[in-house]
Design brief:
Elements: E1 23-24, E2 28-31, E3 36-40, H1 46-55, E4 61-63, E5 65-66, E6 72-73, H2 78-89
Parallel strand pairs: 3-4
Antiparallel strand pairs: 1-2, 2-3, 5-6
Length: 100
Amino acid sequence: MPTNSKLHLRIAAPCKAPWENMDGDERVRFCRECNRNVYNLSAMTDAEARRVVAEREGRLCVRFYQRRDGTVLTSDCPVAQKRSFLRTSAGLDGRNRPAR
């Protein structure tokens, strides 16, 4: 896959295990249901995500946000960074919710 193209993945059999129930951090967690590491590609830069996929020859469990065109949203995407800034600035990042 050329490095100037967007990362595009197809998932043959999506897992139903909740991310929140797994142990780890925002980049990688361990799933006790399948006994495998699950990598959050959207918490990685494009280069990091590509490296993880390449090192495991595409045989891995992943979590990611997908754009409408089917490509993977990574942490270094300018649009994602802008949206994250706007959510944080507006106090909508989940930690600083506005009072009701």
